[in-house]
Every structure is written in C-alpha cells, then in structure tokens.
Amino acid sequence: MLYRNYVKLGWRQVNSHRGSAALKVLSLSLGIACFLFIFIYLREELTYDTFHEDSDRIHRVVVDFVDREGNRTPDATTAPALAYALKRELPEIETAINLFPSWGFQRSMGRDAEHKFYEVGYLRADSNFFDVFTFPFLFGDPETAINDPSGMVISRSAAYKHFGRLDVLGEPMNIFSSDTTIHFTITGVMEDVPFNSHFTFDFLSRINFPNLETSWGWYNYYTYMKLREGTTIAEVEPKLQPLFARNQAEGSVNELYLCYSQPLTDIHLKSHLKWELDANGNISNAYIFGALAVFILLISCINYVNLTVGEGLKRFREVGVRKVFGAHRSTLVAQFLIETLLIMVFALLLGVGASEFLFLQLGDVLGREVTTFTSENLPAFLLLSLAVLLLGLGAGLYPALRVAGFKPALAVKGLVNTSGKSALALRQPLLVVQFALSAFMIIGTITVFRQLQHLKHTDKGLVMERMLIIENADDLPNQAATITELKRLSQVTQVGAATGIVGGINWTTSIGYPSPTLVNYISTDPETIEALELEWIAGRNFSRQVASDSSGFKLVVNETGLRELGLTLEDVGQMRPILERDTTLIEGMVVGVVKDFHFTDMRSEIKPFAFAFDYAPKDYLHVKLSNSELASAVEAIQTVWNEQSNGNSMEYFFLEDTYAKHFAQEERLSDILLYITGLALFIACMGMFAVANMVIKDRRREIAIRKVLGASVSQVTRLVSQRFLLLVLVANLIAIPFAYLVVQRWLAEFAYQVQIGFLLYGLAAVGTLLL
After folding, report:
1. Which residue blocks in 125-232 are alpha helix, DSSP H?
2. How far apart are CA 612 and CA 520, in angstroms?
3. Phi then psi for 460, rounded to 5 degrees?
4. Would you say 430 and 306 are in contact if contact means Cβ atoms under 8 Å apart?
5. Cα distance between residue 578 and residue 588, in whole Å
6. Domains of the chain by residue range
C-alpha cells in the first residue's frame, strides 16, 4: 500500500513537470535506441560462423605469396593438394576439405531447359564437407549427400524457387551452357545458409576434378581443417609451413609461399586477403561502432543525471514540509527513487520501440534485415534493463540523499543553497565529458565522410562510366556475331570481350624471371582495353592485324606490372625471358604499358596487372555506351541479345556498381556515423538547453539586478555563457588529441588517405561551441 502511494505521488510529480519529464524521457530513449541498434548489429557481426558445431576447432589454411623483394601478398586460396597432405601427414587434424566456389560466375541452372534461372550460389566441395561445417538438413543425409559426384544439395530457398516445394529428393537439377548440360540429382535439402556465415551457397556438389591430390600449382581452392578434440592450434601451426614447403618442392613449384592458418570465427572481421569468399567486415569498424554505442548512451545519461540532480535539489521546500509532518529520510529517498525509476521505465520502453524504427530505416545501410524482437537479443535487453535500473538508482540517489538531509526549518524558510559549489561540483565534470564526446564524434564523422569521398572521387586511372557488363556472354551460340550486331547500335561506341572484369573478377598467375611475381590478369581483346580508356605510357594496344599478338606470352601491363616483372620501358616490344617452367625458359613480350589504375579497393597499393589477347569466346562483354538515354540503350542491347541468345536471359550490371562495392564497408560506417552523431548532437543540445535554463533560473535575481544597473544583453549573455565556454575549451583539449590518435590509426588502414588538417579539429571545436 505504501509503495502504491509512492507510485501515485511519483506519477503526480512527473505529470506536474511534463516538459522536464518529456525532455528526460526523449533524451534517454534516443540513447537507449541507438545503443540497442548498435549492440544488436555488433552482436551479429561478432558471431559470424559460431553456429557451426566445434567452430573453435575449425581453421582456414591460407598462403602468402612472397616476391623477390620479400613483399607478401596474402591470398585466401591454396593448392587443392594441401588438404590431402594435411589429413595424411598431421595426426592432430581430424579432417580437412577443399572448397571450389563459382567465382561470381552466373550459371544457368534448373530442372529442365524450360525452367531455369541464372544462379551464382553454386559451390563445390569435398565429400566430407558436412563433417566440418554444420548446415541443418530438411531432407536427405548429410553424411552421404555428396558422396556421388552426380548428387547435389540445395537450400530451402532454391527448392522453393525451382520446384515450389521442399520435398524434392530425387528430382533433377541441371547446369546448362551453350554446348553442354551437366546432370545432377538432388540428394539433400538444407536450411538456407545463415547471414552470419563468411561464405554462402544455394547449390552444393562434390568436387570432381582429376589429380587433385598431387596438384600444388593450381591456387583456386579454399582449404579448411578441423582439429582433433583436445588439440590446440598452437600444436599444429608450427607444422604447416614445413609441410607446405616440402610438398611444394616435390610438386616442382618454384615460387615462395608462406603457409599459416586462421580461426574460422576470425575470418569475417579480421581477414582481408585477396580472393576472400565474400566481402568481409572490419574489426576496426566494430570497435568504432562499440565506442559509438557507449558514447551516445553516456551523453544521454549525462543529460539525465544533470536534469535529475538539478531538479531534485530544487525540492527542498517540499521536503521540509514533509519532514515537519514526520516523514523519515528513508521514505523521502524511496519517493525520489520511485519517481526516477518511472522515468527510466518509460524511456526504456520507448527506446526499445525506437530501436526497431532505426532498424527499419537503416536496413538498407546494414545490408540485411535486422529486428530488435528476437530471442537472441534477450541478453541485450536484460543487460540494458539492468544498466537502466542502476543508472536510475545512481541518478536519483544523489539528489535524494542531499535533499532528504536538509534541516526542515532551513528548507521551509528557503535558506538552503542549491546553486553553489556542491551543485556545480557534479554538473561541470559531466558537462566536460559530454562536450568531449561530442567533439570526438564530430571529428570521427567528418574524417570517415571525407575519406569515403576521397576513395570515391580519386582518379581510378580508367573510365568506368556508362560501361555495361554482360556477365553471361558464354551462353551466346555465336559471340562474335553478337558483338558485331551490338557495334552497329547507335547507342554503343565499343564492345569488347574478356575472361574477367577490371575492378571485379580477374585471375592471378605467377610470372617473371629470374624471380616470379604474382600478377593479376584477364584474357581480353583490343576493344576492351580501348573501351576502358586507359592512359598509354609506352608501346601499343593489341592488334588484330598482328597475328603474333594472340600467341605466346604477349602482354599489355600496367606500370607496376612492368616494374615487378623486372623490365623497363626499353624492354617494351622486345622478347624477354618471362617465365621458367620445369627448367625451361619461356620468352614473352610486353607490347604496351598503361598507367597504373585501381582495380581493387584502395586499402592497398596498386598491384601488377596484365592483359593477354586471344580470340576464344569470353565470359563477359564490355559494352561502352554513348551519351544517349540509358534506358533506351539497355533496351536496344536487350533486343540484340534476344535475337542472338536462343532464349537465354541477359544478365548485366554496370562497372561503376562493381567499384562501389569496394567502398561498401566505409559507406556503411559513414552513413551510420552520420545518423548516430546527428542524434547524439541533438541529445546534447537538449541537455545543454535544459542546463542553461536551470543556470539562468538560479541566477535570475543577479541578472535582474545587473539589468537594472544598466547591463546590456550581450553582457548578460557573456555572463551566463563564459562558464560554459571554459568547459568547452577543457573538453576540446581532452578530445582533440585522443581523436587525432584514433583518426590516424584508422586512416593507416588505407594506402590512399585523405589529408586531415587542423581545420577539421577547429570545426569540431566550433561545433561544440555552437551546442
């Protein structure tokens, strides 16, 4: 009964100060919403691949290529023979497997020729795939599903897409190409691959290539090993490089590679090797998001504490009257705490709902659908609820104890000082922290935004605008005839064919003499190079009139490629030793050199790149569009395709979109920072407004006297604000050095960085002053 009265009195108190209560609820709820939003997103990022049974015993084995200068090129792919050697030679390993992905190529797949779709989620693996990875089956037996090379496992989504039902065991699934059809029988249906897997697939079959156990020179596979129960990676790691080097030498592979392992659960956030199976996250960004969550919750809490303490100390008359009528100190403290907890509960409920709204608004930014209301997020709710309760007790306890301790006679007569040093002793440090956090977030947000703009607008060394890529060109019965027809369109200025995409899919090979180097390359034609509008440094483009250009090792390379091959501009157009294979020296020719261009993300320096020329049909068509209207150009190309492709649909994208994927992580970080920092500054502004209002009320008599004595508005404003200006100065002196260190460390991850001058830190200081 007593506590029910406390709740009624608390509600009456909240209702009588609606403006203040609304300010506190809004401030705290926004902080809670942002905290939940980031917390849940980070929980998902940090739990990648943990759904696999024994995930702590699974490791990926990778290699670094080492060039003549000792520079290492980390590569996620390995030779297929490595998995067999690991099982054969290391008793600490329970099993090891190879994966062979689709490399982004679309495949025409379906139950028959009339019901087919283009799919990119085709994966091949060793038959013991499900001994390592855990993907729940709906139908079929994971132990035997891909023992037969003609067996195929498909996902729930693929089953519904191709058959409209799940029970499809024994149904056919085919891969169609222009000249062949590969037949499979469905032997298993599994759940969709969870979003928090570092690789995804919808179709799985067994690797069925010959001589894999002895193939040490074909680096197109991904190798995973599962340790035996009780074995630690520290026991296995020292044995990997000796095993690899010994078998590599026996396989007559002369290049130098360094072999090591990565924990499965570290791949998504901590691995950024060449040829990752999918775009990974970034542990640095995770730290930034974690700091953001803490910062914005702190800013909200500081607002709440300042307002609660300031208002609580004003209630001395009420407390004095209650004490006169016999109220004990403990009952007064309980009353204050219940009022505080009412505010906290409202803020918590509103914050949870607001976090769901944030997920709906920022779902596209995150790249996936996320929701607050799941069982996995229950720990987050419990943790946050506990934090809110503790915060409520802490924020309400100080003014409760102070006010409840006033002497009744002094309190009733209004002789209690509530605006002196005791009140400022708590308020001022909190305001300094709030200003410092705001300055830090302003600096971080501007830095990330400017770096993203720098990455986007730095000259890439090629022209990618209005470049349409047809990615299933190998489906064309007569690719040459299609290219001829496309060139006749007024909306098309050039058409070229290639085995890969600059900025997307390309291949690597090890060439160079006497010491080999790793070179990215695609096989293409002169038209593709012309369409990219690369800048020529020396030599010439390939020519269809020069028969020798399409035979032997004839290359067009970038500047870095020329340098890494050990050649100079004087060697262009001359036959030079370029490769040693099985003790045989092979000569080749660099016919042309183009200026360095960016074909990967800009975290690393530009790597060697080479173009080779042959007349064979290619996988991709590069169609350069004129300045005509884009939709009509695509429609005209689609018409030609329909006439030439025997009913296959045209799959296409624009080269600009491929380059945009390189900056997806930074784009996501920038967008979230802008949203969260904007909300944080809004919360800080609300708090500063409330605090300034309380300060003015505390000094209203002084201000009135000064105005009577002739003080101007500017003098009164300076009087009120000078204390805040000092706090802002202290806050910036704290925040700017720390922000500088963090910003420089983050920028160090990029080979190409925006220059951050003192102006940025000045803007942050001005921004906090404007609060």
Report:
1. 129-132, 156-163
2. 11
3. -85, -10
4. yes
5. 6
6. 80-252, 419-459+666-771, 472-650
Q: Tell me which amino acid residue 265 is.
A: T
* Cα pseudo-dihedral 279, 285, 287, 292, rounded to 10: -130
- Fill in the DSSP letter of residue 229: T
- 484: which residues sit within 8 A by CB, 6+ positions away? none
Q: In whole angstroms, what is the distance from residue 293 CA to residue 669 CA? A: 13
**Integer CA distances (angstroms), 654 to 121, 293, 394, 620, 632, in order:** 20, 36, 56, 12, 15
Higher-pLDDT residue of 747, 95: 95
Could you report the per-residue pLDDT of 587-639, keeping only the tens digit for each? 889 999 999 998 877 777 888 999 998 877 788 999 999 987 888 999 999 99
The residues, ordered by sequence, that sit 6+ positions from 51 with a Cβ below 8 Å of its Cβ are 134, 194, 196, 197
Q: What is the pLDDT of residues 267-325, one digit of tens each?
A: 999 998 888 888 888 888 888 888 888 888 888 888 877 777 666 555 556 666 565 55
Answer positive or negative: Cα dihedral of 216, 221, 226, 231.
Answer: positive
Torsions phi, psi for 156 (to 5 deg)? -55, -45
Task: Locate 148 and state its tokens.
Answer: 């037969």
What pTM was estimated for this model as a whole?
A: 0.81
Which has the higher per-residue pLDDT, 707 or 441? Answer: 441
Q: Are 262 and 67 in contact (CB under 8 A)?
A: no
Give φ, ψ of 474 to 5 degrees: -70, -10
Amino acid identity, residue 69?
E
Return all residues near 215 (Cβ < 8 A) that are at least 6 apart: 79, 80, 81, 251
Is residue 176 within a helix (H) or strand (E), and if so which, with residue range? strand 172-176
Q: How far apart are CA 61 and CA 233, in angstroms?
A: 11
How many CB atoms neighbour CB 296 within 10 A?
A: 27
In this predicted model, which residue has the larger pLDDT, 17 or 523? 523
